[in-house]
Amino acid sequence: MQALSVQTYDGIRSVSHSAQSDHEVFSWNDGEPRKLSVRLDRVENPDARFEDSAQKADSSTLLGAAVGALIGGLISGKPITTTEPAREGAPVSDLQSLVGAKGGQAEGTLTSKGYTYRGGTKLADSSFTYWEQPSTNNCVTIRTTDGRYQSITYTKKSDCN
Description:
alpha+beta, 4-stranded antiparallel β-sheet, 17% helix
């Protein structure tokens, strides 16, 4: 945090950092005083169950990634978007709120977010449906058991073909 800088059209500027109780503030001057406020919310689904081992990132890692993406987007003038790696088996973060939901009710949310149904299969006591993620064309699998979504993870692209 001590050596933050931002590159503007006029050159590299030092960035000051201020930690507030519920957010971080980054300030710099490129002919005009600028401020960037970053707040990281923690969202948890108490009913979520994952079969893989937990992975943890501390707040400084998350803050560094968020600040880098935001400042880069501000400087480039391009829309700020975040993408996550489509690592096979990794949870799909924007759909984790659906884990535990009834399958039939949650499908409307998937289609409203632009996901496209690509097929499904049944194995033992679970059903697996495959959905294509909008804009990335990544393939997502949803495991449903007893009528409720149990997991929503990335899978290999060939599952959506």
